[in-house]
Amino acid sequence: LNLTEIRKHVPITERLTYINHAAAGPLTLEAANEMKRIVDEQMYLGSNFQVWTPYRKFIAEKFAKIIGAKSKEEIAYAPNVTTGLWAFASSLKLGKDKNVVITDLEFGTNIWIWHALKAQGKLGELRIVRNVKGDIPIEKFKDAIDKNTAVVGVTYVSSMNGFRANTKEIANLAHESGALMLSDAFQAFGLVPIDVQQEGIDVLATGTYKWILGPSGYGFLYVKSSILPDLGIGLTGWQGIHPTLKESLEHPFDLERLELPQDATRFETGVHPIIPAYGVGAALDFAVQNQTISKFEDTQKRLVAPLMEGVKKLGAKVQSPEDFTKLGATISIADKNPPEAVDFFKKRGIIVSWHWVPGMSPGIRVAPHFYNTIEEVDRFLNALKEYSTEKATLIKA
Ligand SMILES: Cc1ncc(COP(=O)(O)O)c(C=O)c1O
Questions:
Q1: Residue 256: is its pLDDT beyond 90?
Q2: Best label site of 81, 123, 190, 232, fewest CB within 10 Å?
Q3: Rounded distance from Cα 250 to ligand 1 centre (Å)
Q4: Cα 40 to chain center, whole Å?
């Protein structure tokens, strides 16, 4: 599909200049229609669990293919990233002698859960690798990881400034020390081609309401099958543990006989979010059928490069890596008052958001995607010029 055709499937393009995928993606027409269909189904049929419940396996299989997992048995649904990460973290056999290594470019959730485990006395140390001007040199990981490291948890692409970690290199370091490689891939899934096997990722969590253009209320947890035997029982529920009917009748709730499933479904909790699930199914199909993820480098060249150039020409400070091998498609433009900037652009029909970058400044966060046009980037740059003369809060390079 060409750009004009593809934009017909992303109806927000009719109304707004939407370059805010680091916050949330708009729904495609297909994702919205699928959810409307299921809303009607529940309205007129009530329960249709025979179809709705196994549907989670159907989309798990699609997801598994997109991220290069071996099979759907390595995938659990999670209602959001936070719950997926908790399901994994709570199943680890940690201890006071163990440490977890993360970075300061994580989204908060991948910090708070480890902090909580430490506060509960289940984890000895949480090591936060600090960024250097928005980038995290690999040497910093070398210094932080040791033989007591249980998990190295790194955001695939940072929500703060678009920094893209070299996951494979970090995974190699983790594995050399016997640690697991965990990736929070919410800012990458739907944007960057991911191959968990090739990149050495043991555990990956993502949601579906950003770059994949699906709804909120859904997410996936990938857990490599070979690490399952080392994990215990953590966050789980009736969808996570399923004794046979015979077993339930003959030995009801006999905990001595409790067996965890040999696949990732053990991390599932209650009923999966049914209405979003159907939107997710449509979003995954849309991405695969139109090969949207393979357009990542084109998005960088066609949209992110001129965006960055334009910002720099205005003398403003970019707080994102300029080396595109270390970047997703999000850039942070330093500003003293970014919430005001976000409003300024919104009044002009341009949607962006803001974030802070640790050790740097707050920033206007601009995140275009494959279906955006260069005209939209130019519209933003013209508005930025206007903003810089009117408000004078942009921080100079
Ligand atoms: C990298 C990353 N992880 C996790 C989240 C939040 O995930 P959830 O609200 O689905 O738990 C976000 C949200 O912006 C994010 O950017």
A1: no
A2: 232
A3: 43
A4: 30
pLDDT of residue 258: 86
Q: Which class for 5: exposed (0-12), middle (13-18), buried (19 or more C-beta within 10 A)?
A: exposed
pLDDT in tens, 236-252: 999 999 888 899 999 98
**CA 185 to ligand 1: nearest atom:** 1
**Interval between CA 389 and ligand 1 midpoint (Å):** 34
CB 215 within 8 A of CB 194: no
| Residues 230, 227: Cα–Cα separation, whole Å | 6
- For the packed helices 109-119 and 81-89, what is the interaxial angle rounded to 10 degrees? 30
DSSP 42-90: HHHHS--HHHHHHHHHHHHHHHHHHHT-S-GGGEEEESSHHHHHHHHHT
| Residues 331, 320 contacting (CB under 8 angstroms) | yes
Instruction: Compute the C-alpha angle 191/199/331, nearest 5°.
Output: 35
Angle at 68 between CA 241 and CA 234, to 5 degrees: 25
Task: Show the tokens assigned to 336.
Answer: 């003293």
pLDDT at 391: 81
Work out the pLDDT band at 350, boundaries 50, 70, 90.
Answer: very high
**How many other C-beta atoms lie within 10 A of the C-beta of residue 73?**
19
- The yes-or-no verdict on residue 1 having pLDDT over 80 is no
Beta bridge partners of 351: 18
Distances (CA, A) of 140 to 129, 136, 144, 181, 199: 6, 7, 6, 16, 19
On whether the CB atoms of residues 149 and 99 are closer than 8 A, the answer is: yes
Give the C-alpha separation, 94 to 37, whole Å: 44
Per residue in 46-63, pLDDT (tens digit) is: 999 999 999 999 999 999
Q: Kindly report the pTM of this predicted structure.
A: 0.97
Q: State the distance from the centre of ligand 1 to the C-alpha of 176, rounded, in angstroms.
A: 29
Does the pLDDT at position 166 exceed 90? yes
